[in-house]
Amino acid sequence: MYTSRSAIEKAKEKIGNLNEEKSIFSTGNVLYLNRYADETFDLAMNMGCLHMINKNSDSLCHLQNVSRILKPGGYFLVDHCKSEWGKGFHTIEDYDQFK
Predict the structure, then answer these.
(1) pLDDT of residue 2
(2) Which of 47, 56, 67, 89 is the least buried, fewest Cβ under 10 Å from its Cβ?
(3) What is the predicted pLDDT for the residue at 87?
(4) How far apart are CA 87 and CA 79, in angstroms?
């Protein structure tokens, strides 16, 4: 659910020869983040994903689990890919009204 294998493949292409061990990328369920133990990370980043979760209960689940995997005092960075970040997304039916 909510994973982009094509995005992972593009990222692997971009790092090219910079990192011969391309296993630094992983896919999984973005809602539950069940691959990760509590308080594992100092920083979590959500780049262009949160707005694609179209059910409020799923968004809340994701945010609770981000909080769970962050160490105390950790940071959560949320950003989007471009200035018209919602344009063309299936979860936004009327972009002109939404923006």
Answers:
(1) 46
(2) 56
(3) 59
(4) 15
**Is the torsion defined by CA of 65, 49, 77, 22 positive or negative?**
positive
| Positions in the chain whose pLDDT score sits under 70 | 1-4, 17-23, 80-93, 95, 97-99
Integer-rounded Cα Rg, in Å, for the chain is 15
Summarize pLDDT for 33-55 with one digit per residue, the tens. 999 999 999 999 887 788 778 88
DSSP 8-state code for residue 36: S
Helix (H, G, I), strand (E, B) or coil at 73: strand
DSSP H stretches of helix in the chain: 5-15, 56-69, 95-98
